TrEMBL record:
Family: Belongs to the HesA/MoeB/ThiF family.
Superkingdom, natural source: Eukaryota
UniProt feature, compositional bias: Polar residues: 54-63
Predominant place of localization: mitochondrion
GO cellular component: mitochondrial outer membrane
Database matches in CDD domains: YgdL_like (cd00755)
Segments forming domain THIF-type NAD/FAD binding fold: 98-358
Name of the protein this chain belongs to: THIF-type NAD/FAD binding fold domain-containing protein
Listed Pfam families: ThiF
Originating species: Lasiosphaeria miniovina
Length: 509
């Protein structure tokens, strides 16, 4: 056999392979250099902050506008006059004339005297702020640590190319003072968290008597969002939360409802779950979308495995524990969310009648699920205490719509635990209860005066379709089989994991 060095064909082939590798490497290097050069030119095209720019000052302060132009100077002088009282009130009323006709004189007066805090001044928060200022709210506190970027411009309410690199709170003030010079903006260039909550949600200019009339949550980070909502809940501050606008495209599916209402995006699900674990299950209005994901629709791309392998994923974000992925966002949707949030705040402050109709279909579904649980529990009582017994009459079930929504939507993702089917869902006990343990009797005496309730716990219940539950009831709850004999190990393990999750929640009920 000829050696490699003595074979001209092999030498030629090897030379071709090496040449191709060198050429490919050179091409990739050239492309990388071109990319770096474009990125460098792009960054150079964004104006650098001056020494007095807020971006290089302590995070809690903002400074004068960098490179103010003549229009900025004119707007600043006008704002100073308006806020010092040297501005004809009739001009303001003329600008707000349509609102005054709609809301009435008293309603507009309430709005003009209101103090609103907006936490998160990106796509949703900027549109909400613009709507509030244009509608008459005269005191607005803006809270955001971030700055305007080129990618912000597809959804921000007022930012222009000249604002790229400027803090979002200062950008809003800069642009809105040209529209509503009488509005006072309290700018807080900070990231909201539990430690900063007392100062960021304090009264206007530190006054205990001028607490926020409303707080708007437009944060897209789960931890900060939960901390804000929990603080407002604990301290009785009116708040409305915007859930995820990312990946949404259908404005007709946007609704206002309670925090326990079903939604179909990850931010909503995670926020509600965290709040439920903290004992907050209802009482917070949220703006959400019922739009479902589907083929061809935008979705959040999973973070690549190689990023996880680098270490703590949180270290990749702009700030510790902040989001590290870019959400696909259609520029119109944050605006719809923001205006819906602002609309709610305006109506609540002015006392205008609210008659939302979201969640009716879900409410009807929860009624049906509750009725199914009731019927199964009644049949178990008759089975355990004798079919002739009337102990099942008037039996109460210790479940609320919020509990049902939590189990169906949050724990089991709106699908049967057995097959993943999302229609005709019910809740049913997973295990057969011990005989005689299904009934709790209080003030036992005559059958007419005692209170009877089922002992069913949330962790006892799983989601199935109605047909699956009927078979399960017959063979497990009223038969002699155990779930492990009917279902495979994967289903049993899934149920056990979900039961542990629900058990943690039950401590806060």
């Amino acid at each position: 056999m000829a050696s490699f060095t003595s074979s001209p064909k092999l030498q030629l082939a090897a030379t071709a392979v090496v040449s191709a590798a060198v050429a490919a490497g050179a091409l990739l290097t050239y492309q990388r250099l071109q990319h770096d050069e474009r990125l460098y030119r792009l960054k150079r095209s964004i104006p650098e902050p001056k020494a007095n720019d807020s971006l290089i000052q302590p995070v809690t302060s903002t400074g004068p506008l960098p490179r103010p132009d003549k229009e900025d100077e004119h707007n600043q002088l006008l704002a100073q006059r308006a806020q010092s009282g040297d501005f004809d009130d009739e001009l303001i009323l003329e600008q707000l004339a349509r609102n005054r006709v709609f809301l009435g004189r008293d309603g507009l007066d309430k709005l003009r005297g209101a103090f609103v805090v907006v936490v998160g001044c990106g796509g949703v928060g900027s549109h909400a702020t613009a709507a509030l200022a244009r509608s008459g709210v005269s005191r607005i506190r803006l809270v955001d640590f971030d700055q305007v970027t080129l990618s912000s411009l597809n959804r921000h309410a007022v930012a222009t190319l000249a604002d790229v690199g400027l803090s979002k709170v200062q950008c809003l003030q800069r642009r809105l003072m040209a529209v509503t010079p009488w509005v006072r903006f309290d700018m807080r260039l900070q990231k909201f968290d539990g430690r900063s909550a007392p100062s960021l949600l304090a009264g206007w200019e530190g006054s205990d008597s001028q607490k926020p009339d409303f707080v708007i949550d437009a944060i897209d980070n789960i931890d900060s969002k939960v901390e804000l909502l929990k603080y407002c809940w604990d301290h009785g501050l009116p708040v409305i939360s915007s859930m995820g606008a990312g990946t949404k495209s259908d404005p007709t599916r946007i609704m206002v409802g309670d925090i326990g209402t079903s939604t179909d995006d990850g931010l909503s699900r995670a926020t509600r779950r965290c709040l439920k674990l903290l004992g907050v299950t209802s009482g917070i209005p949220v703006v959400y979308s019922t739009e479902k994901m589907g083929d061809g629709k935008a979705a959040l791309v999973p973070l690549p495995d190689d990023e996880f392998e680098k270490g703590s994923v949180g270290d990749l974000g702009p700030l510790p524990d902040f989001r590290v992925r870019i959400l696909p966002v259609l520029g119109t949707m944050p605006a719809v969310f923001g205006y819906t949030v602002a609309n709610h705040v305006i109506l609540k402050i002015t006392g205008y009648p609210l008659d939302y109709v979201p969640g009716k279909a879900r409410s009807k579904m929860y009624d049906g699920i509750l009725a199914f649980v009731q019927s199964v529990e009644e049949s178990l009582v008759r089975e355990h205490y004798g079919r002739a017994s009337n102990l099942s009459v008037g039996l109460k079930v210790p479940l609320t719509h919020g509990d049902i929504a939590f189990l169906v939507e949050e724990v089991y993702r709106g699908r049967s635990v057995l097959t993943g089917i999302p229609t005709k869902l019910v809740l049913v006990r997973w295990q057969k209860p011990p005989r005689g343990s299904t009934l709790v009797r209080i003030a036992a005496g005559t059958n007419d005066t005692e209170q009877r309730s089922s002992d069913v716990r949330l962790r006892d219940l799983v989601v199935m379709t109605k047909d699956e539950a009927a078979r399960h009831q017959k063979e497990v709850l009223q038969g002699d089989k155990v779930p492990g004999e009917l279902y495979d190990a994967a289903v049993v393990a899934k149920v056990e994991a979900r039961q542990k999750e629900v058990e943690a929640y039950e401590h806060y009920r």
